[in-house]
Amino acid sequence: MDRLFADGAVNAADTGRGPPLILLHSLLSDRASFDAVVAPLARSFRVIVPELPGFGRSRAVGGGLAAVADRMAELVTDVAGPGGAVVLGNGYGGFVALQMAIRHPTVASRLILADAGAAFSDSGRETFRTMAAVSSA
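The structure assignment produced for this chain is given below.
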């Protein structure tokens, strides 16, 4: 079932019962990339699969990766409260999860980073700047 979090700014699928598990998708995909694993995980967890800001029905944010991480911290706080949640980030979602944990150390009880690095190279940053310029033109 879809729900809105972070004061209505983030749309997410919400299914299952148990400790919260947040799945953050990669840049060149969407939350559907987790479809094959949601049902099995929902047997043991409350699985939340958001559309990252600017994807699907989630509102975009200005301010780059830090702003995206802050918005996801709002979602995790809405879902898990002070106890935090397990957060899995794939690709770009891993960058978001890591930045979120650095900026908001209490929101994630555990981090799982899949196919993610700790920082973008200079050429990688330039690629993202170009993508942002094209999308806002």
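Interim note for the steering committee: The longest strand covers residues 108-114. The chain has a mean pLDDT of 89.
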